[in-house]
Write a structure and sequence with these properties.
By secondary structure, this protein is an alpha+beta fold. The protein contains 3 helices and 8 strands. The strands form 2 sheets. Strands 1, 4, 5, 6 and 7 form a 5-stranded mixed sheet that branches. Strands 3-2-8 form a 3-stranded antiparallel sheet, with no helix packed on it.
């Protein structure tokens, strides 16, 4: 990172949280929030979020996991060595904090959930941010590319391939 092109992409982490059956947690987006326009029928995604200035990606992944799911009982499994980019679709709505970016550059991490499902809550808002999700469920990793909005699909295909070894029951 560090080139002019990098400035066009917001540094971001993505999280694949696997349960004991090898499924991943996905959450249903509430609606459009600026450039990341939600397409009906493709509202589901894995947790993700921005990396704060000076924050290490793994630290950001732990923070985003806690903020977006309330999960604290998890263990680190691994991460993708490469960063993946996606572009936002065309956006001409009201001013938005992400509108200055072309898209997001993501580092993906895999964690194993070690808690109980009742620990998970995706409906809480954090640090003054609006609530992002209405519900969550466990899904097969291979199904995630068809559940996500089309502009993220290629990223999810790569994530599904890279994290396939973690998508097995314990």
């Amino acid at each position: 990172m560090g080139s002019d092109k990098d400035a066009l992409y917001r540094p971001n982490v993505g999280i694949a949280l696997f349960n004991r059956l090898g499924q991943v947690l996905i959450a249903k987006s509430l609606g459009d929030d600026g450039p990341e326009i939600v397409v009906p029928g493709h509202e589901w995604q894995m947790p993700q979020g921005g990396i704060d200035e000076g924050e290490e990606p793994l630290t950001a992944a732990w923070r985003e996991l806690r903020e977006e799911t309330c999960v604290t009982n998890a263990v680190y499994l691994g991460e993708m060595k490469v960063w993946l980019d996606y572009d936002f679709p065309p956006y001409d709505g009201p001013p938005h904090r992400l509108a200055r970016f072309r898209g997001q550059r993501q580092k993906w991490f895999a964690f194993r959930f070690t808690g109980e499902d009742r620990e998970i809550d995706v409906t809480l808002a954090h640090d003054g941010a609006p609530q992002e999700f209405s519900e969550w469920r466990w899904a097969d990793l291979a199904d995630t590319p068809i559940l996500v909005v089309p502009f993220k699909r290629e990223v999810y295909v790569h994530v599904a391939e890279a994290f396939l070894p973690f998508a097995k029951p314990l």
